[in-house]
Structures are given as C-alpha cells and as structure tokens.
Write a structure and sequence with these properties.
Elements (H helix, E strand, L loop, with lengths): L11 E12 L16 H13 L6 E2 L8 E16 H10 L5 E8 L12 E10 L12 E3 L5 H8 L4 E4 L14 E12 L2 E8 L6 H13 L7 H8 L14 E7 L32 H6 L11 H11 L10
Parallel strand pairs: 3-10, 5-6
Antiparallel strand pairs: 1-3, 1-4, 2-3, 5-9, 5-10, 7-8, 8-9
Helix pairs in contact: 1-2, 3-4
Length: 326
C-alpha cells in the first residue's frame, strides 16, 4: 500500500470491515474495554458509533496492556450502515482523541477474524541506553542508564526461538489455557543509543515480551551469563525470573494474515525506527502447525503436535480471557 494512496469517497462500504489502528497507550489501561478506566477499545467504539449513528463493537488481533503502544493493531467489525472509506477513516479520526488514529479501512470477507485468522504477531521493545534521562522519547522508550551489550543480549535470546513452554515469562494472572507458544524469531540490535528487541510469535502470553526484555537487560548489564535465557526457559517458574520491563518501551507493530484477505502493507513502526525501512510481511513465516492451522488445515491433522493442541485450545477460548497480545 503506497503511503499516500487516496481514500475512496464514492463507494459505500458495509459488511465486515478491517481497519488498522495506531495509538499511544500512555493514558490507557490497555486495549480492552473496562468500566473503571479509559481504554483504546472504548474510545474507538465510541468514535465509530458517531460515524455509524449506532453502536459498533470491534474485535482486535491482540490485546495490549497498560501503557503499551501500537502502530498496526488490526481490528474488524461488522458495519451496521454503509459509509465510504473516506468517511470511516476521516470521520472516526475526527471523533478520536489525539493519541489514537485509524490508518486505513478495507472490506474483508465474512470469515475474516482479526484474532482467529492472525498467523503471527510482532512487537518491538525499544530501550534508550544513555546516561541521561530521555525527554522526547520518555513516553515511547524505556530508559536504561547502565551500558548494555546488545550482541550478548541477542546471543542469549536465541534460546527462546521455537516451540516452548514459556511459563517463566508469563504473568501470574495470565489467563491462557496453555503456556506453549511458537516464537518465530527474536533479534536484539543497537542503533546508536537505541537498543531494539524485535520479536515475532504465533501469540504471546500476558507480559511475556516485557518479562523477556527484563531478563535480557540483566544479561546486557553482565549480571547474568549468556545461558541465562535458556536456564529460565527450562525452569518454567516465573518467580525465579527478573522484573517485568516497563510498558512504555513496547510497541505492537504487526499482525500477519493470509494473503487472500488482501490487507494493506505499510512500514513497520514505531516511526522512531522508520530508518530501518522494513514493511509488514517482508519476513517469511515458518512452515509450522499453527500457521497451517490458521490457513485452514483441518484440526485433526494437527492433533499429534503440541502446537496443534495449543492452536485448538486457543480457538476455544473467548477473547476476553485469552491474552493473544501483550
């Protein structure tokens, strides 16, 4: 999708629609609608309702936690009225607070589901590694004043790639039925004062990436050895691991879907890392049971693998109790 592709202001869209949402999570309790605190979901639904002149309910690809940001949160909803693409985008943004924006809206087939059809989710955790506290980046990066060895962090992180029980990296209140996840890749790179942890998996447990980041910081400081991540993984005990890294450094940057849905491609965020030049979907997905399952392969063919069982369990859990985001 070109950066400046014009929005259609003639054809009216109805039926199932998918949209991409960007938000600064600093002022919100997270994605999910709650009665006692502001949420991104509630703000988006209220803005869509203004455009539709009736209630609208949305479903997302993965819930984010308090203070966590997103540049490509994929959402779907069944439009109760027909509006043009331009009206859905501009009208919704006109009724949203300045820290939330809809990037695009497209029609999708009726069986598209933002959560259940996602093949993978990708996050970037940004650390500003410098002696002085940040000013311009204070809300979208985690500050670490001690020097970090990014190469050492990257080497240690490779123990997490593949299908594993991530119990050592899940929050105590995580509601997922299974601690098994398939981590596709994780990289740690330094760009000047920025250290970026880039990680993709079929899904993530509650606080999983922030707990991984906290452990990797201990490795980067030299407090733990290069085998630390492998040892934590084997322990399967969260109480023996490090602190949870702050939410401000975490960015939900991509949700990947089968090409048949035709969702627009766009540069990966946050814009702080635009110089990397990568767009969504450029990295190939692993040929694994979860990906094949989400592409429509019958569940019976996957029963023999742990990932297949996890996929089946995830399919049965309501989105209100399954942490498919972070």
């Amino acid at each position: 999708m070109p950066l400046f592709e014009p929005l259609d202001d003639i054809s009216r869209l109805t039926g199932r629609l998918a949209l991409s949402v960007e938000y600064d999570g600093s002022a919100y309790c997270g994605w999910q609608r709650l009665k006692h605190a502001p949420s991104v979901q509630a703000s988006l639904e209220a803005a869509l309702a203004k455009v539709a002149a009736t209630d609208v309910r949305v479903l997302c690809s993965g819930r984010t936690d308090t203070g966590v940001h997103a540049t490509r949160q994929i959402v779907h909803f069944d439009a109760p009225v027909a509006r043009t693409q331009k009206a859905w985008v501009f009208g919704t943004n006109a009724n949203l607070p300045r820290d939330i924006a809809v990037r695009w809206v497209v029609p999708v087939v009726d069986d598209f589901h933002a959560r259940f059809k996602a093949l993978a989710r990708r996050y970037r955790y940004v650390i500003l590694n410098q002696p002085s506290r940040p000013v311009l980046e204070r809300a979208n990066a985690t500050w670490c004043r001690e020097p970090l060895d990014a190469e050492r962090m990257h080497a240690a992180a490779q123990a997490l790639v593949g299908e594993h029980d991530f119990s050592s990296f899940r929050a105590a209140g995580c509601q997922s039925k299974t601690p098994w996840r398939h981590l596709h890749f994780i990289t740690v790179n330094r760009y000047g004062p920025l250290i970026v942890i880039d990680v993709q998996a079929n899904a993530f447990l509650h606080h999983m990436i922030r707990n991984i980041a906290g452990a990797l910081v201990a490795v980067g400081k030299g407090e733990q050895g290069a085998d630390y991540m492998a040892r934590l993984l084997a322990l399967r005990d969260r109480s023996l691991a490090n602190v949870t890294a702050p939410g401000c450094g975490l960015h939900f940057v991509d949700s990947l879907y089968d090409e048949r849905f035709g969702l627009p491609r766009e540069p990966l965020g946050p814009n702080l890392l635009a110089f990397l030049g990568e767009w969504t979907g450029e990295r190939s997905l692993p040929d694994c049971p979860m990906v094949r399952f989400r592409r429509g392969q019958p569940i019976a063919e996957l029963e023999s693998s742990q990932a297949g069982r996890a996929a089946h369990e995830a399919r049965q859990v309501p989105s209100s109790s399954q942490e498919s985001g972070e």
